[in-house]
Design brief:
heterodimer; A: 263 residues; alpha/beta; Elongation Factor Tu (Ef-tu), domain 3; Rossmann fold; seven-stranded antiparallel beta sheet; seven-stranded mixed beta sheet; 16 strands; 19% helix; 34% strand; globular; disordered N terminus; B: 334 residues; TIM Barrel; eight-stranded parallel β-barrel; four-stranded antiparallel beta sheet
Chain lengths: 263, 334
């Protein structure tokens, strides 16, 4: 915990990053490696980076991405994202050898994993949970679900980690169990140390309810449109019992009971 | 030896060729006096995007700014609007934050102390739902150490109660400005709304009521609809448009206001480069503020400062005064 607390004090840094390996891992999904030694050294699971648009495409807001992998030795970080709009298309268009400006590490990430943790990933919610899963060798389970197999974009080779059990679900049954991540969580909730979730808000709300009922501690990583990414503009608000909090600075990871999520 | 000698010759020859004198290579003077506030340079952080300065302080030294206009402060904390609060548009963005702020006392206790000694001027943006609220904040801040001026937000379109009414009518503008004027000896800027029929008449009303300067423009009112949900995209339905898309609108209004009043103008609205900033100054602004541009590029203030200095030097202007309002009142060949 002390290591995490120390890292929590890390100031965000602007870094001009060389674009490395870029792979379209599935139709519409990109895995991008960036050489960002300053960020790679300090980022911990659940934190994110803002990727600035190349100057020729200004004005456009930077796009926030959870860190998917970070390697202190090579100085590389990896982000995994769906190519969804203009911003992600432009970032995907950056070729290896080009430079992208990053700001990070940003936000409060996950606490350290206890034994028998369950990680619940809905769709692209997989990104920060892969980094989290890789942070320990303790026995842990990843529940990974999406509407169809096409949205289970994370390459299985990236999930091959010692001590990690993987349960998959698709709503149409095209891969894993037919059903949702929530169905799988209900099945195992009584034997887990804690729950760590990232995905659509209704999924997070269900995870919160199920964990609460089973008296299991749950952590959720929430998403909101962002501008500054550092807590100044208060644009990325999430409702909490004590008023609005900032996803970028107070989160993106919150204790589930801390946030009011839409169903 | 020979090589060194040649180099020296070349340098002196170059200087002679260009006829440069010692004077013209001197850095231009970027200092300006805005409504009685001595600024080291004409670039300020606009109220809102910059928060209370302590986040951006982690990205750059605040002393590179001429001043910071902190996010609007009301007597009591304001919760802000429900999300979503942001939406990107072509060339800009909409926001409906709702002036969320910690309230006056928390600002004084927790935010202001760290701003003291940051090497830049601190201007507090004041918001309120009534004339009394504006007056209460202004009165409390009068004489507080570390505050160099006030900016009255009489224009923010996000606020359903109060705010919008003051800035859209010369009489109510005059009323709130004259009331606040009695409460403070601090330099008083009035931030004007662009969502009006005749901004010059409101500017004149603020000047007559005792304003020391005018800030403009605030955001333009706008909205978007979410096609999937078939509802307004922003939690507050309406939001404020900012970013480069509004720059020509802001520039025109700065031109109009600078031509209508004698007090100095702080120009803002979509400034995203030194070239933009220089246009505002030539239209009549004494200084400029950046907001949304910081989101696109946190290095923007430094780049603008350098770009303005380069321009002045290249065109042999000794200071900013030499180009202020020059596009409206050509000063002829120097």
């Amino acid at each position: 915990m002390s290591r995490l607390n120390k890292q929590r004090g890390a100031k965000p840094k602007q870094e001009n990053c060389l674009v490395g390996n870029k792979q379209i891992i599935a139709p519409g999904y990109c895995r991008l490696t960036l050489y960002a030694p300053l960020i790679a050294r300090e980022v911990y699971p659940g934190q994110f980076v803002e990727v600035y648009m190349p100057p020729e495409h200004q004005p456009m807001l930077p796009r926030p991405f959870s860190v998917y992998k970070a390697n202190q030795k090579t100085g590389e970080i990896v982000i995994l994202f769906e190519i969804k709009g203009q911003g992600t298309r432009l970032i995907t268009a950056a070729e290896p050898g080009a430079t992208l400006k990053l700001l990070g590490p940003l936000g409060h990430g996950f606490p350290e994993l206890p034994s028998d943790a369950v990680l619940v990933a809905g769709g692209m919610g997989i990104a920060p949970l892969v980094f989290l899963a890789s942070s320990t060798d303790l026995p842990r389970t990843l529940i990974y679900g999406a509407p169809t197999v096409a949205q289970l974009a994370c390459p299985s080779s990236d999930l091959d980690m010692p001590g990690l059990t993987i349960l998959e679900a698709t709503e149409d049954g095209s891969k894993g169990d037919q059903g949702t991540t929530v169905d799988l969580l209900i099945r195992c909730i009584n034997n887990v140390g804690a729950v760590f979730a990232c995905g659509p808000s209704p999924m997070l709300q269900a995870v919160k309810k199920i964990s609460d009922r089973a008296a299991v501690k749950a952590w959720v990583s929430v998403e909101e449109r962002m501008a500054c990414g550092i807590g100044a503009c208060v644009g990325c608000a999430v409702a909490t019992p004590g008023g609005y909090k900032r996803v970028c600075k107070d989160g993106p990871v919150f204790a589930a009971e801390e946030v009011i999520l839409s169903e | 030896m020979n090589k060194k000698r040649c180099q020296a010759d070349l340098e002196s020859k170059t200087n002679n060729d260009y006829g440069l004198t010692n004077e013209s290579s001197v850095q231009p003077d970027l200092r300006v006096n805005l409504a009685g506030i001595e600024l080291a340079n004409p670039i300020l952080a606009a109220s809102g995007p910059f928060g209370y300065g302590h986040q951006y302080r982690e990205l750059f030294d605040l002393s590179l700014l001429g001043g910071i206009i902190v996010k609007g402060i009301s007597p009591e904390p304001w919760e802000g609007n429900p999300p979503p609060r942001l939406a990107e548009t072509t060339g800009g963005m909409l926001n409906a934050i709702g002036l969320q702020n910690p309230g006056l006392e928390k600002f004084l206790k927790e935010y202001l102390p760290s701003l003291r000694g940051s090497g830049t001027k601190i201007i507090v943006n004041v918001i309120g739902c009534s004339v009394d609220e504006y007056a209460a904040v202004a009165s409390r801040l009068d004489g507080v150490e570390g505050i160099d001026g006030l900016e009255l937000n009489i224009s923010c379109p996000n606020v359903k109660a109060g705010g919008i009414a003051f800035g859209t009518d010369p009489a109510s503008t005059g009323n709130v400005v004259s009331t606040v004027r009695k409460q403070t000896g601090l330099p008083l800027l009035i931030k004007l709304s662009p969502n009006v029929t005749d901004i010059a008449s409101i500017a004149r009303a603020a000047e007559e009521a005792g304003a020391d300067g005018l800030s403009l423009i605030n955001t333009l009112s706008g909205m978007l609809i979410d096609l999937e949900k078939k509802t307004p995209l922003l939690g507050n339905t309406f939001g404020g448009l900012s970013g480069p898309a509004i720059m020509p609108v802001a520039l025109k209004m700065v031109w109009q206001v600078a031509g209508a009043v004698k007090i100095p103008v702080l120009g803002m609205g979509g400034i995203n480069s030194a070239r933009d900033a220089l246009q505002f100054i030539m239209a009549g602004a004494r200084a400029v503020a950046v907001g949304t541009g910081l989101f696109y590029n946190p290095d923007l203030p430094a780049e603008i400062k350098e770009g303005i200095a380069d321009y002045l030097q290249q065109h042999r202007f000794p200071d900013l005064k030499s180009i202020e309002k020059i596009a409206q009142d050509p000063k002829g060949e120097e």
